[in-house]
Amino acid sequence: YFLAFPFGARLIRKYGFFAEELRFNKKDNYRIFKRVCKRTNPGWILIADGYLFDFWFGPRYIFNIEWIVDNPIGAKFASFDNLCLSIRNKILPFYNSSNIEDKFKWLRTTNLTKLMPVLVPCPYTFPVSKSDNEKSSIFYYRRSNEWLKWNEDQKKSFRDSIGIKKEEKLVLFSISEWPVRITRAITEDVDIWLRYFSHIVKMIFQEVKGKTTLLVISTYPLFNSSTEGYLKIINWDLLPYDIYIKFLLTADLFITTSAISSSIVKAVMGKVPAACLISSGGELKESRLSSQLINWFKTARAKYPDLLRSYLVFPVGWQEILTFIFEKNPYKDTFEFLDLLKPMATINTINTLLFNKEKRESLIQKQNSYIKQINHLPGPERIMNFL
Q: Pfam families from the xrefs (predicted)?
């Protein structure tokens, strides 16, 4: 049974589950929470990403985490935390722009380990860090990958069904949607901004050295479907989840715009070569740029400086937020980072991943190694039974 704020509830329903919506009034939410507890009588109340309770304008203003701790039916409780943010008190920059109101700029995380167990999934994380709180309850668990196993015959059959030739490469490129939604809420002219982003992405992919189909999954029309040289571009809106997974598992390369994309997790666990588009940012100088980037750089610097800032999650940033989980974490070696501001290096890496068998096998070996290192971890059900 799911209890969620409106945006989360819509997302949950999209995947076929029922979700009851919370409101934007604290008294209403307390009544809803008590009613749901008494009606469903759960053994557990699990919080998704409880560190967000101190985020900007909510939800701590409209929902009290103490209600869960003191729930009326005595249910056990815990928080799932993908990013290891629930184990420390910290103030982190949430958005890349320096010209924005403070309430939109900072993420205040809360150490929940004194209140409840915190369950941390691997991947993204890796169990090397420990909380400095002796009484903390941090439990790392292994995500299941059984349902992601496809043999070569299954992959070939699906590729044949969508018209991909044996010698042709399939690249699945998925734009992470939630950061773009945030950007739309707080940045002007985001459509023009995304148009410049798509320009450089297309410029990079036009340099592939063999026949390649680029399937772009995005609610924003980044490209027009076209065929130029070796490259065929197909631009689609959202796919049904089961179809999307089939494309991901049969792709020669998966690329996205967020280093914490759940699809990268699926690619890694499914042993599909994967990469994330990032930006190194920094103080760029026109003299150091390739000729292809000069006009784009001038426009971006004048009108859309956020494009030139560094990010691990396009376009919001999140370098500081993600530093903690990527430190000493072999997961970061299971996929490649492609720097948009270094297009030649990015083009070379894409071509290598697509057409160099040794490089592909090397990356898949790193994925295998990571999976073996987390195989000893328990599943979430075992942890909950233990607790």
A: DUF6365
CB 339 within 8 A of CB 346: yes
Closest to 179 (Cα-Cα) out of 328, 321, 324, 280: 321
Correct CATH for 146-373 of 2.60.40.10, 3.40.50.2000, 3.30.70.660, 3.20.20.370: 3.40.50.2000
Quick check: 338 and 312 in contact, CB under 8 A?
no
Could you give the CA distance from residue 96 to residue 314 in angstroms, rounded to a whole number? Answer: 10
User: How many other β-carbons are positioned within 10 Å of the β-carbon of residue 111?
Assistant: 18
SS (H, E, C) 226-266: EEECCEEEEEECCCCHHHHHHHHHHCCEEEECECCCHHHHH
- Cα 134 → chain centroid: 31
162-215 tens-digit pLDDT: 899 888 999 999 988 888 877 777 666 677 778 778 888 888 888 999 999 999
Rounded Cα distance between 238 and 163, Å, is 20
Cα 309 to chain center, whole Å?
Answer: 19
Write down the domain spans for the chain: 2-142+377-386, 146-373
The whole model's pTM is what? Answer: 0.87
